[in-house]
From TrEMBL:
InterPro entries: DUF4432 (IPR027839), Gal_mutarotase_sf_dom (IPR011013), GH-type_carb-bd (IPR014718). This is DUF4432 family protein. It comes from the Bacteria. One of its GO terms (biological process) is carbohydrate metabolic process. It holds the Pfam family DUF4432. One of its GO terms (molecular function) is carbohydrate binding. SUPFAM superfamilies: Galactose mutarotase-like (SSF74650). Gene3D superfamilies: 2.70.98.10.
Amino acid sequence: MTVHSFVLTDADANQQFERFDLRPTDGVTLAGGDDWSVAATTLHGGLSEGVSVVDICNGPLSLAILPTRGMGVWRGRFRELPLEWKSPVARPVHPSFVNLHDRNGLGWLNGFNELMCRCGLAFNGPPGQDGSTAVTLHGRIANLPAHRVELHVDTDGPGVIELVGTIEEASMFGPRLQLVSRYRFRIGHPSCEIIDEVTNLGGQPTELSLLYHINIGRPFLDDGGSNAVAFRELAPRDSRSAEGVETHALYGPPQAGFVEQAYYYRPATDAQGWTMALLHNRMRTAGFAVLARSEQLPCFTVWKNTQSEAEGYVTGLEPGVNFPNFRAFERGQKRLPVLAPNQTYRCEQRWEFADNAADVHELLSGVEQVQATCRPIVHLTPQPGWSPAGTPSA
């Protein structure tokens, strides 16, 4: 086994590749195929000035990862299918242009563009005053750059490409959390793995909030498309979501002024500890599946936001440590893990894709197999302990 390693960014050494390319013609042979590549570049112009992008292709799948924006995923492609959504924020925004306190704590939305962004680490959910702390929408991690980025290419078996980014979310007199994020691509496989480890580098115990905001648009989302989530229980977040709970899995056409809906799930789990959710289009010819370790990510949210195309026609499949409620509420429900000094919390997920009816059927069968482990319960109204709307005392 040979591992080729490259350091793309090292803030401590004042090192940053403006451009980096690695392909089979550069002398690295991977048995799984010869159509893989890695390309790193820096965007210039407008609000994207200075944003680093690492584009990794394993053959059928490519993802553009943004070390400058919390190691989020900008967009991608699976064979001929685009992996993206059309946000009103048309391009990646450098964090220096995002004021999280703008719009009464909703400034996070000014940079909301990615296929996947993390929400956390000290807090996520809506803004507000949590004791002496003013928390902003969905936290800071999506707008923090990695101070170290490494690329590893393993020639064992079919070959594996792994990108590793390290970010610190820290402040004086506040939490000091470190995220080490790994994206792992097996050459020729229609999938990728995402493995995150969050460590408390501080001297006192601290809470962890973490949700993966995976945002999917066309061609997976369309009028008549649906999601399939393996779950034990489901509850609408609020009264608006309750209006559509009986058709929670179905999607309609773009509708100007559509008011978002969100559904909270307690996932079902297979014998290996994995849960699974799938979004597919009406014709079942495009499928995007999210698999997660439910012990690590015990909460799952589906966000339905089928506004007009110009406003952002999108849905979210969102595994999380917690539900995206206000931090004080989640603390009261004991859903926020407390990390001791030097303790690490690990989160594992995998994305799988399909671009034909047979493969979509196979993914759907995977969800059904997990669902067969229990009988799902659907609550028609917000539930106590699930969200503030279901908790009269909140």
